[in-house]
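Lab notebook, bench 4. Still working through the backlog of constructs that have no structural model yet. Next entry is a single chain of 130 residues. Request: give me the structure tokens for it.
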Amino acid sequence: MKKKIVISLLLVALSIAYAGAFLTNFSVKSQDGNVIIAWQTSSETDVKNFVIQRSTIKGGWIDIATIEPEADHNYEYIDQSAYKTADAIYYYQLKIVDYSGSITYSNKETVAHSVSSVKRTWGSIKALFR
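Model written out:
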């Protein structure tokens, strides 16, 4: 029992509190033409949702997905819409919203994202018809 308490306290000490969520890991990586956003929480209290936000060097933050809390506290989202330019730099952050209306933001993570010319061309064609 004592070992379990020490491990729990250590996890909380390594976590950062955001609007009812203790975030233990937040990472982004470019893989197979997509950007994978992953995070873990050690605990969540009254978290309404997580909003994944993306920005570029030139642009402001845009919401790309809203994720509801999960029982296992492990999250992954694949951003398939980050394809506009080759070797682009993207910034990601989590907007964490709780039921009281409190909003906090995670640290920003940066990823150098490269995509194939086929996906980049297809993305340009899709953008014309929006």
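Notes after review: The two ends are 58 Å apart (CA to CA). Confidence is low (pLDDT under 50) at residues 1-15. Flag for follow-up if needed.
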